[in-house]
Amino acid sequence: MGKAYQEIDGRISRWLARQRLFFVATAPNGDGLLNCSPKGMDGLRILDPHTLVYADVGGSGIETVAHLRENGRIVIMLCAFEGPPKIFRFYGRGHVVEPGDVRFDELSSLFPHLPSLRNLIVVDVQTIRDSCGYGVPLYDYKDERDSMQNWIDAKTEEEMLEYRRTKNRVSLDGLPGLRLED
């Protein structure tokens, strides 16, 4: 049985800083599709002992945003793939910060330049739990992939906007996603 924590303290912060990959899980109300997405690209930050923010970069789906707009429920999970085994889960309520929102520029400045950044997800952490992680295999980190950057570089700004209009306006369940102007 894992341990519960009241806040993201210095020890947890240092552990988080060493992780290269995290997973985000959300679910809509009712019988809709659950979603779990892997994230990387140095895209997670601690704002304070009870708040995380991550950079939501472009992709073909918009499930997390749609689910958060509907009910706000979210969990972020990190696993140690190097060093001692450990898993942390951060359960909370999330909200979307889009370009043009009051805090977007401030929060996006916390991350490296990500040309595919479409919004930020802020998580008010309510519960923190760890577990052993004994079943998580060891992996060696090599590098970030350049696939996303290459894909972005091959598109014009108008092509990116059209892609988001097509792929990110609604979720697989038909829930509202990104707020895009036509």
Count all strands and give the number. 8
The CATH architecture name reads Roll
- The separation of the N and C termini measures 50 Å
* Anisotropy-based shape: globular
* Relative strand content: 25-35%
Task: Give me the CATH fold name.
Answer: Pnp Oxidase, Chain A
Report the radius of gyration as a whole number of Å: 17 Å
Number of domains as seen in the coordinates? 1
Secondary-structure topology with pairs:
Elements: E1 4-5, H1 10-18, E2 22-26, E3 35-39, E4 44-48, E5 51-57, H2 63-70, E6 73-79, E7 87-97, H3 104-108, E8 117-131, H4 147-153, H5 157-167
Antiparallel strand pairs: 1-8, 2-3, 2-6, 4-5, 5-8, 6-7, 7-8
Notes on the protein architecture:
With 182 residues, the chain is of the alpha+beta class. It has one domain: Pnp Oxidase, Chain A, CATH 2.30.110. Helices cover 22% and strands 31% of the residues. It has 5 helices and 8 strands; from the N terminus they run βαββββαββαβαα. Strands 1, 2, 3, 4, 5, 6, 7 and 8 form an 8-stranded antiparallel sheet that branches. A hairpin with a 7-residue loop joins strand 6 and strand 7. The longest helix has 11 residues. The protein is globular. The mean pLDDT is 93.
Throw out a few tags for this protein:
182 residues; alpha+beta; Pnp Oxidase, Chain A; 8-stranded antiparallel β-sheet
